[in-house]
Amino acid sequence: MIIPVILSGGSGTRLWPLSRALYPKQLHSLTGENTMLQDTVFRLASIEERGPVYCVCNESHRFLVAEQLHETGADIGEIILEPSGRNTAPAAAIAALLITKKYPDAVMLVLPADHVIPDTAAFGAAVAAGKSAAEAGELVTFGIVADSPETGYGYIRVSSGTESEKTVYPVLEFVEKPDRETAERYLASGDYFWNSGIFLFKAEAYLLELEAQNPAMLAACREALEKSIEDLDFLRLDAEAFCASPSDSIDYAVMEKTRRAVLVPLNAGWNDVGSWSALWDVQERDDAGNIKKGDVLLHDVKNCYIHAASRLVTAVGLEGHIIIETSDAVLVASRECVQDVKVLVEQLKMNERDEVMTHRRVCRPWGTYETVDASERFKVKRITVNPGAALSLQKHQHRAEHWIVVRGTALVTLEDKKITLHEDQSTYIPVGAFHRLENTGTTPLELIEVQSGSYLGEDDIVRVDDRYGRQ
After folding, report:
1. How far apart, in whole angstroms, are the C-alpha atoms of residue 55 and residue 74?
2. Is the dihedral of CA 339, 344, 347, 349 positive or negative?
3. N or C: which end of the chain has fewer CB within 10 A?
4. Where are the domains of the chain?
5. Into which CATH architecture does domain 2-266 fall?
6. Would the pTM of this model clear 0.85, i.e. be above it?
7. pLDDT in tens, 180-239
8. Strand 296-299 vs strand 305-308: parallel, antiparallel, or unpaired?
């Protein structure tokens, strides 16, 4: 049996301003109708004898991840919450420890949640080709068949004079991202593959290698799992123990040191979508070489990627550019310089700008809210509550709130009273009053919230009861 383990802990900073810390790229629909996480799940249909899906994600993304996974209809084994990112090796170790308890002879397929692999049949065939080697105790990685001298990927070298009929090759070395001249030499030799970051191995085999190569990491993961707690649909790791683990990738922690690493070639149109130019590469373009998303109007524009999320975007006389518009930020960049978007993100972090963390439209387990306007002593939000959902029973120390129902029916708890509000009706929540908002109907509840007071931060919430387990 093959147990898929999806790693969904990345932040995708190079796809800012669409991808943000609290809403990263794998949770967006970038190349089709489904999100990248969902496409990763659907891709598993090409694999025979597969078991339930395990997913490791950032604690801050848990409700979005759970919702998107459940929408796929997949059999979910466990959603594991990382209290902080420690790279891929500890994440895979936690999953391996869980899998060995329930499926001791299973093979783990470890794959990132943010890759594009359009040829799912070729993907399934590659996994099938590596299964026997993995069952025999080998640690399988998938090498992307290189078709250009890319300098943005790491490479894996296999034995010289590879035979075309072979499907599994011993790994000779992992090499870092090369310069252009070196990449051209790699491509010409035929002995080098792009490093995909996808792995196939028995859970026990991975743990044995990790024990030999990095025992401190495995010890920290064991302790984090032993002290973990079940929280609704999630497994919450112990924060102190997990954060004590060294932070390292599967490549560095195990694959580069083991003698049991083998490679299976993968030729399936793979792309890790690590930049806006990569999205331009993998999608269908119009006759002028442009990709347009949203309300876009162009004149004399060629080979550009334009994404309009909330308003009309126009451009004249451009070539080879990226334009990304969201409700609170706009990015304009040359396609040749999009890797430097991460430099802007670092500047935003240094300046403690909200735009690096979240969008104006913020997802919550009960629905969404979007800040429409704000000033020093007031804030206006558009709130949508899903059918059957409810906000926590809470109070605020510094702000009062006015609620005006725009669509649907709201059940409001205000201290010891319950009030039903219909469209065009409103209520007032005084400072310090306990209150709760519920949607008991079958359609989304939409309302406008006007906050007023001396402090309007999101941390001015005292929860006394919450069905989603938030503090």
Report:
1. 12
2. negative
3. C
4. 2-266, 276-344, 361-465
5. Alpha-Beta Complex (3.90)
6. yes
7. 999 999 999 989 999 999 999 999 999 999 999 999 999 999 999 999 999 888 999 999
8. unpaired
